[in-house]
């Protein structure tokens, strides 16, 4: 049976269901597979399979303490009528470039792909472990994770979900999605700090033993919907396999031909899923890590130093406004040859002094990764240029990826993750296209009229919904507020 171990090496190995329920390992590390599942990807078979069929295979491989019927149930619940396209993921072709449109779920962002599955993975894992506690899902969000998590976990029995998000930086639509969330088990709180403040406080809360004990007394326990949870990460592997299979089916690539994968990157989960896909058989030439002006990852891949000691910038690609990319720890684990002492040293250095330098050997192991960043002006220019040249509408995060692709100019077929619908960011998209930033219902209507595209059904009446969550607190009040909401 496949086991999951901590990146920091000081926690016992666990099964998939235990890793999903725990979220984070007891030593503060992140769970990674102790070995890669042997899935023997057959592209001639995969090219004719549905998204759900491919998801079933990947889930079977990584979550092998779940039964076949349990996996079938999870996939059916996750990828059904709540998607506005039965294909789940669709594709847009531009010469040698393929956009993976990951935004057809209920909240119009790629996070839906995993967060429609995670609640069912968790509730099934609880049954496997004979756990009767209420799961308290604690999440920091830069905008997309929170809405997708609430839509996934909303009114799911035996769960409470607490979402902290930065007051400044989220789009009008993201804010409306969060503040109008109707689920009775959702607790949504804005903070006056930034995403890193929220994420750091969430990690701290998850690690507080006295708080864990207080929850235990009330038959509750923590878990996480952030991509630190392996149950978030594995579902994201599926769309890279599906995308490659579709390119083979269309005759755009030969089976076994390597592709480049470009990913707009903040917390590093999406590009890490592409790396995981490569470890189970996806042929990849280069991983192109696209950053915005919070370009800590760009510097890291170009000079080998991770340095968070810099000003945090609120940009027009807010879901990527992050200086501490949690999932990078998982990549370092594999790049270092599973050296948990080395990884723990990096994480301690980051916490204590704000930076760390890779060993020459580990840096050498990351040669497949290249990185660049896009300024806010380049994001705007890219949205405008792509629409002018191809009449294709992209959101600001996808524009970051497209701009960095232009800089890197990789050879050969390339996949780019289109991570959100442009309708989530009408202010930025309309400012780029017509010079006027319009938000709310007015923005949705204006973007539809300008582009000749339809407003997605899931947000057509969003701005008519009442606001239910208006609380704003200072970051240092997060622990106290959490206690008031949950205990």
Automatic annotation (TrEMBL):
<dbReference type="InterPro" id="IPR029144">
    <property type="entry name" value="Thr_synth_N"/>
</dbReference>
<dbReference type="Pfam" id="PF00291">
    <property type="entry name" value="PALP"/>
</dbReference>
<dbReference type="InterPro" id="IPR001926">
    <property type="entry name" value="TrpB-like_PALP"/>
</dbReference>
<keyword id="KW-0456">Lyase</keyword>
<dbReference type="InterPro" id="IPR036052">
    <property type="entry name" value="TrpB-like_PALP_sf"/>
</dbReference>
<dbReference type="GO" id="GO:0004795">
    <property type="term" value="F:threonine synthase activity"/>
</dbReference>
<comment type="similarity">
    <text>Belongs to the threonine synthase family.</text>
</comment>
<dbReference type="Pfam" id="PF14821">
    <property type="entry name" value="Thr_synth_N"/>
</dbReference>
<dbReference type="InterPro" id="IPR037158">
    <property type="entry name" value="Thr_synth_N_sf"/>
</dbReference>
<feature type="modified residue" description="N6-(pyridoxal phosphate)lysine">
    <location>
        <position position="111"/>
    </location>
</feature>
<dbReference type="Pfam" id="PF24857">
    <property type="entry name" value="THR4_C"/>
</dbReference>
<feature type="domain" description="Threonine synthase N-terminal">
    <location>
        <begin position="3"/>
        <end position="79"/>
    </location>
</feature>
<dbReference type="InterPro" id="IPR004450">
    <property type="entry name" value="Thr_synthase-like"/>
</dbReference>
<dbReference type="GO" id="GO:0005737">
    <property type="term" value="C:cytoplasm"/>
</dbReference>
<dbReference type="GO" id="GO:0009088">
    <property type="term" value="P:threonine biosynthetic process"/>
</dbReference>
<feature type="domain" description="Tryptophan synthase beta chain-like PALP">
    <location>
        <begin position="101"/>
        <end position="351"/>
    </location>
</feature>
<protein>
    <recommendedName>
        <fullName>Threonine synthase</fullName>
        <ecNumber>4.2.3.1</ecNumber>
    </recommendedName>
</protein>
<keyword id="KW-0663">Pyridoxal phosphate</keyword>
